[in-house]
Amino acid sequence: MILTLTVNPAIDRTVMVDRLVFEDRAYMVSAGESAGGRGINASCVIHSFGGPTTAIAVSGGESGARWEGFLSDCGFPVIRVPIANDIRTNLTITDRQGLSVKLNEVGPYLSAAEVDRLEKVVRSHLPAADWLMICGSLPPGVPPDFYARLIQEAREHGVKTLLDTDGEALAEGVAAAPSVVSPNQQEAERLLSTALLTRPHFLEAAARIRKMGAEAVMLSLGSRGAVGAWQGHAVEVIPPRVEAVCPIGAGDAQAAAFVWAIRQGGDFADAVRWGVAAGTASARLPGVRFASLQETREIYAQVEVRAAV
C-alpha cells in the first residue's frame, strides 16, 4: 500500500480566463473547486492507475468539512486527523494559452498536541505500507524537522519514502536520507542557494542533493522533463512537446506515477519515465486534472531516456 501524507491540504479554487495579461482586464470563462494538497493529488493518481493507496491528511473548520465533501466518493481511504482551525483555500488562475498564476494561503496553525496526534496516526499506518509519500508544505506550528522524523520512523518499519516539499522541511528531510527526493527546479534552487539554468547545472544539482543525504533524486524540470540520479547513475528524461493547458498539479502526478511504477517492479530510470509521462499528460488537461493511465501510457511511448555522461 502507498501511504500519502498531506499536512497542509486546501480547497483548490481554479478560475479559467480568456487571457492573462498585466494592467488589462481578463474575462472569466469558468470556475470550480476541488479537494487539494500534494498527497491527496498523489493518491488520486495512484488510485486511477489501479494502485492501492491510503491518504492521511489534517482537516478542520468549515473549509475542512467542504474539503471532506469533495473527497466523499474519491474511491480510496482518507484518514482525517482533526484540527481546530480552518484549512486553507488556494487560488489558481489559468488561461487558454497555458499561463497560470497560483496563489496559496500559508495554512492553519497546528498546536503541539495536533502535531503529535498526526505523527501517531502516520506511525500507526506504517506497518501496512511499503511506500510513504510525504508531500507538500508545512503549516505554521509544525516544526521543520517533522518530515525528517517521519522518514526515520518509516525506515524503522522498512517503508520507503518519497519526499516532495520545499524550504526548511526539504533541507531537514534530505538530511534524514529519504529513499527518493523529488524537488522541482525552483525548490532545488532554494535548497542549493544557486540558479539552475543549463543541463550541467541540473545534473550537478541532482548529484549535490544526493550527497546531502537522499538515496536518489528525481529533479523535475517542467516541460523539459526530469533528471534522475541514483547509486552512481544519472539519466535525463525528455518528454515530447505538447500544448500545456494547465501545468498546475503536474508535479504531483509525476511523483505519484514514479512511485506507482517502481512499486510495479520497474527500475529507477523507467519509473522516472512514467513520472514524466504522467506530468506531461496531465499538463495538457484544463484545470487541475490528472491524466488517466491510458493517457499517460500514450505519452510514455514518446518519452526519451538518455544516460547522462
Overview of the molecule:
By secondary structure, the chain is of the alpha/beta class. It has one domain (2-307): Ribokinase (UDP-N-acetylmuramoyl-L-alanine:D-glutamate ligase, 3-Layer(aba) Sandwich), CATH 3.40.1190. It has helices spanning 38-48, 61-70, 112-125, 146-156, 167-175, 185-192, 199-211, 250-263, 268-283, 293-300, and strands at residues 2-6, 10-17, 28-36, 53-59, 78-82, 88-95, 100-103, 131-135, 160-164, 180-181, 216-220, 226-230, 233-238, 304-307. A six-stranded parallel sheet has the order 5-4-1-8-9-10, sandwiched between helices. 49% of the residues are buried.
Spell out the key features of this protein.
6-stranded parallel sheet, UDP-N-acetylmuramoyl-L-alanine:D-glutamate ligase, alpha/beta, 309 residues, 25% strand, 4-stranded mixed sheet
Describe how the helices and strands are arranged.
Layout: E1 2-6, E2 10-17, E3 28-36, H1 38-48, E4 53-59, H2 61-70, E5 78-82, E6 88-95, E7 100-103, H3 112-125, E8 131-135, H4 146-156, E9 160-164, H5 167-175, E10 180-181, H6 185-192, H7 199-211, E11 216-220, E12 226-230, E13 233-238, H8 250-263, H9 268-283, H10 293-300, E14 304-307
Parallel strand pairs: 1-4, 1-8, 2-6, 4-5, 8-9, 9-10
Antiparallel strand pairs: 2-3, 6-7, 11-12, 12-13, 13-14
Helix pairs in contact: 1-8, 4-5, 6-7, 8-9, 9-10
Side by side, the strands of the main sheet go: 5-4-1-8-9-10
Largest sheet: 6 strands, parallel
N/C terminus separation:
35 Å
CATH topology: UDP-N-acetylmuramoyl-L-alanine:D-glutamate ligase
Order of H and E elements? EEEHEHEEEHEHEHEHHEEEHHHE
Let me know the number of strands: 14
CATH class: Alpha Beta
Percentage of residues in helical conformation? 25-40%
Q: What is the domain tally?
A: 1
